[in-house]
Amino acid sequence: MTFTPSLLSSARRRALGYTAAGLASAALLLSAGCGKKEEATPPAPPTVEVATATQKDVPIYREWIGSLDGDVNAVIRPQVTGYLIKQNYTEGDWVKKGQLLFQIDPRTFEAAVDQAQGMRAQQRALYQTAKANLARVKPLAAKNALSQKDLDDTTGAELSAKASLEAAEASLQTAKLNLSFTRITSPIDGIAGIAKAQIGDLLSPSVATELTTVSTVDPIKVYFNISEREYLPLARAVIANDGKRQVVPLELILVDGSAYPHKGEFSLLDRQVDPTTGTFKGAALFPNPDRLLRPGQYGRIRATMSVQKGALLVPQRAVTEIQGKYLLAVVGADNKVAIRPVTVGERIGSDWIIASGLQAGEKVIAEGTQKVKDGSMVNPKAFEPAPPAAGKAATSGDKPAAPAPESKG
């Protein structure tokens, strides 16, 4: 078949027509796709939990972790060697001063007392003889009926017999004292611990054998550590008050979160800083008439230092710390977020005092700060704080909530 120029022109025109139609169809599809993208629904604002900044008078206090111990802890140890034959108290019970706790086999010591009594009687007889001889010799020596040497010998014999009698008396007292040590009694009123020796054990003062411990628990002592930073203002306040220590009532918060009903008082501060912890060891005394508290328990010592009037409070978890700066995510009436720098004060329980940068009644994000950035919209709902765990020590030195990363959107 022969192609003429007219036929080629016709074919080219048809091909160009098909190409134009394809391009037009593609353009329509693209325009339709772009239109759908522009008309897509924007994502919903993130849901966050907000809390309202409240203003009220709050006590400013310091808290320390404390360990309880007896005011006096008498460690009971044997003072003579012998076999333990009896335990005369119920472990964990209240005992009185002088009450018998343990009994060591006394037979050896009773025999020693009898022997010492016999020695004393013998030395007493010798002394009486020497004393009578001296009484007879003195008049004769005065009349020169006996030599001076006879007088000196008789006088020496009398003095020696007297010294031997005194030694025998001391031996008898020692034997009686050792016999008394076979009856091990409590030196104080208090609670007696579990016995650490069994019937039949051979006890000896040369071995570090602890029989039990008796502790006085009313009042009970609570030890705690105070840092140098906390110590300095307290010490300066005492100096400014002419050396008179201000009586600050102390509270004791038990491990279940309950407040102990009796107030305590500061008792002592150690003479030096512990080099291993960098803190002073202090102690407070609390009345314990019901013997509720026992040595070895733990609690929190709380001292109210002052009352701050009209303090502005927000939850601690609402505060974000970034490179030493504190920020709050404030939600406005239009639900728009403003990241705002603030100045913080004391931490009070699970709240934080805001010294500046916030007004009472403003709402801050307490949960969900990682979802927002400055200027973003949010869907706020009321913040519901979790109930505190029983016994959790929320001290004044708690860290702020972990910083939320700033969205770069």
What does the model show?
- This protein has 409 residues and is an alpha+beta fold.
- Helices cover 28% and strands 34% of the residues.
- It has helices spanning 5-38, 107-142, 148-180, 228-240; strands at 47-52, 54-76, 82-87, 94-95, 100-104, 183-185, 190-192, 202-203, 212-227, 250-254, 265-269, 279-286, 298-315, 320-322, 325-331, 337-348, 351-356, 363-367, 379-382.
- It has a 15-stranded mixed β-sheet that branches. A four-stranded antiparallel β-sheet has the order 6-5-3-8, with no helix packed on it.
- The radius of gyration is 46 Å and the shape is elongated.
Could you provide a short overview of the structure?
The protein is built from 4 helices and 19 strands. By secondary structure, the chain is α+β, with helices and mostly antiparallel strands.
User: What is the CA–CA distance across the termini?
Assistant: 68 Å
The helical percent reads 25-40%
Average residue pLDDT: 83
Structural class: alpha+beta
Largest sheet: 15 strands, mixed
- Assign an overall shape: elongated
Strand content: 25-35%
Tell me the Rg in angstroms: 46 Å
N to C succession of SSEs: HEEEEEHHEEEEHEEEEEEEEEE
Secondary-structure blueprint:
Elements: H1 5-38, E1 47-52, E2 54-76, E3 82-87, E4 94-95, E5 100-104, H2 107-142, H3 148-180, E6 183-185, E7 190-192, E8 202-203, E9 212-227, H4 228-240, E10 250-254, E11 265-269, E12 279-286, E13 298-315, E14 320-322, E15 325-331, E16 337-348, E17 351-356, E18 363-367, E19 379-382
Parallel strand pairs: 1-19
Antiparallel strand pairs: 1-18, 2-9, 2-13, 3-5, 3-8, 4-7, 5-6, 7-9, 9-12, 10-13, 11-12, 13-17, 14-15, 15-16, 15-18, 16-17
Helix pairs in contact: 2-3
